[in-house]
Amino acid sequence: MVQILIVGGSDAGISAALRIRELSPEATVTVMLAxxxxxxxxxxxxxxLSGEVPDWRKLAHRTKDDIQQAGIRLLPNxxxxxxxxxxxxxxxxxxxxxxxxxxxxxxxxxxxxxSQRPPIHGLDLPGVYLLRWVGDSFQMQHHLKENAPRSAIIxxxxxxxxxxxxxxxxxxxxxxLVGRSPTVLKTVHASFGEHIAEVLQQxxxxxxxxxxxxxxxxxGAQLKVSGTQVSGTQVSGTQGFxxxxxxxxxxxxxxxxxxxxxxxxxxxxxxGAIQVNPRMETTVPNIYAAGDCVTTWHRLxxxxxxxxxxxxxxxxxxxxxxxxIGGDRTFAGTLGTQVVKVFESAIARTGLREAEAKAAGFNPxxxxxETWDHKVYYPDAHPIRIRVTGDAHTRQLLGAQIMGHYQxxxxxxxxxxxxxxxxxxxxxxxxxxxxSYTPPLSSPWDxxxxxxxxxxxxxxx
Amino acid sequence: MVQILIVGGSDAGISAALRIRELSPEATVTVMLAxxxxxxxxxxxxxxLSGEVPDWRKLAHRTKDDIQQAGIRLLPNxxxxxxxxxxxxxxxxxxxxxxxxxxxxxxxxxxxxxSQRPPIHGLDLPGVYLLRWVGDSFQMQHHLKENAPRSAIIxxxxxxxxxxxxxxxxxxxxxxLVGRSPTVLKTVHASFGEHIAEVLQQxxxxxxxxxxxxxxxxxGAQLKVSGTQVSGTQVSGTQGFxxxxxxxxxxxxxxxxxxxxxxxxxxxxxxGAIQVNPRMETTVPNIYAAGDCVTTWHRLxxxxxxxxxxxxxxxxxxxxxxxxIGGDRTFAGTLGTQVVKVFESAIARTGLREAEAKAAGFNPxxxxxETWDHKVYYPDAHPIRIRVTGDAHTRQLLGAQIMGHYQxxxxxxxxxxxxxxxxxxxxxxxxxxxxSYTPPLSSPWDxxxxxxxxxxxxxxx
Lengths: 461, 461
Description:
The structure is a homodimer of 461-residue chains. The first copy, chain A, is an alpha/beta fold and 461 residues long. Chain A has three domains: 3-35 and 77-114 and 254-324, 3-Layer(bba) Sandwich (FAD/NAD(P)-binding domain), CATH 3.50.50; 128-250, 3-Layer(bba) Sandwich (FAD/NAD(P)-binding domain); 338-460, FAD/NAD(P)-binding domain, CATH 3.50.50. Helix content of chain A is 25%, strand content 29%. In chain A, the strands form seven sheets. In chain A, strands 3-2-1-7-18 form a five-stranded parallel beta sheet. In chain A, β21 and β22 (345-351) form a beta hairpin. Chain A is globular.
């Protein structure tokens, strides 16, 4: 009876456990996790903090009971501290503080990531928050409930920064968003970033780009802003940036959590993540790893990247689980497909941006195209903007970005591009796809295809 | 200077003309059409009749001016009556009733389809309508405005029947929908059809299935229904069906319009449509045809079908246009991808249904799966049902059907399946696709992938 030990109870760990349970009634599966919240949708935390999801328990993909009833042994509040790859056991501190050893035949590491702590003075002041795990959200929620802050400063203009700007605005706070990159959401093109900034501003968010925050200080009741006495936390940085808020959120990205893995002597790869092969094997025998702690194979770049995403964690966990019990699956690779909702807008991307494509040796041409998300004569049509990047020589599709109304099927339109990318289609070939149409939902040529036609026209001219 | 003559000013004809204009500044392009409404979105007629689109002019994809400014010569109100393939000319009756000859180097036929006239007694009575062309909608609109009918009987439970049941209900009429097939919308599985019937009934539509209408009669003020004197039109048929309505719509499908083509001696194929090859060439030299009047190559069945759809007409028109000026494009084939909105529901399909797959020699297994269109903790999640059909031996994806809320990205989710079908993916491979996720719009495994996983589980067991 093979013993599978999984460290980490989030997307990768639970996906691995479920896959094993699906395929093998014999294997024993134990999932050890550091906190008390297995299988939580951490992507949902902004919506808990916004008030849209009143009860945090609803964020569980599955309850503890669900998981245990599926035949998975759960060890919450267990902190794994060391791996002994020779003895094939893991040392952990259990919920009572006692050291225990857990043996394994196969070990799967799904230790995830931790919030990046940028070099800012004052990160540990009260009222300054990071947001990665369920526990982080409790701290911020407590502050929101107890102290009813009226203003917030968000440091970082990536996905979580944007979602939290939306969330805290919805909750009635006056939000300032400050980020280092020249436009918000640097994973999409600047023209989209500028448009997102407009959306934020329309909803009352103050947006400051191209600015590095350097200091966070407790302003007490000492500080005067425009002649008025204010209390709170002052955030200052380059470009003369200075703002005072009752709450500060640092959303500067994620760093792979590899401390435990390193005790086993695994090799680290891109951005310090655990190096894995397409079978999700680490460099140490019988140890697999998946999710936000590992390097991720990029299907287009044909290299490793670090791209911590829930979708990828689920896929990699499933592959690791299957292989841990003797299967032979490989992870097909990421395309960097992502979508985010910011107020009523949705912004999505897949594949490579122009600059990424150039750096990878392609000859990219990018065309931006705007149309309506469905026939404009039918009520509630919204503009939809699509950027298509393709290779000038091979005409291969390299990437796409879409921005539109969140009910304008932006997310699943990017998925048409993602599916096309998966199959290395040319941009021109997109016109051969038999896509669905009815006037309230699309056009006879879907906007995806209209954008492809615009690309074809411009790239030939 | 090559002369291209196009007969038909709807999707296929105009697409061909635009493609020629795009590729060749030299060719002359003339589009002759029987009515005065070139490039109208006839798929939009139900929304004009519902009142959602108050001005019928808005249904034009492009105005006459747009088309002429693009360098396309338009001849509206010209009825083409005969082709002389030897002299390479078309005889037509112009707007003044005069016979004229129009020469061509290449001729493209986009004559479309006409409404099927089922063998029902009384089809030509006043108050009985067909709906295919813009002119048809004017007649019905006139009746709706002048006589303010309070009730309607729709014969036919296909796409147009369902859309018109929605449209006329929205307009305040009491609607009865009667169809021959055992469930409505026979192009999707019966379980979906039953659910659509429930949606219709919830909105006050009376639904009668498995019933052939035999007679339409003018009831005058003579008829008594449940003891009450009523006027209007009586519709009766099998299963003891009898209903009285102020308006009758016959929506029994479409028949290819091939009369003109036959004067050139073209071969007809499947369901009497004009036989074309993948280059959209008819069997007569220098004559191309595209759209609702031609046979359509089915990518999965690898045979000709007859499937008149706007999306296909656009694609075929584009191919015909390009080839007419010396290009070398082929039509990639249909997958039968379709979507329809009925009240707040959307129902979509692509590929083969179980029965179609069996008839074509596959070994289909179908699994129906229900989940939410996005994470259920986020507001406004709606159920989404997905049916996946795959081959038990090769595990190849054969088809899919989705039913859910019309804002639940049903349409573009079917397009993920359609793109997968285009590339002959297996059902299992769908799990390798890097699809987008954010809690308000999807799940870490998109419902498309969850359904694939359900299929895999059941098809192995």
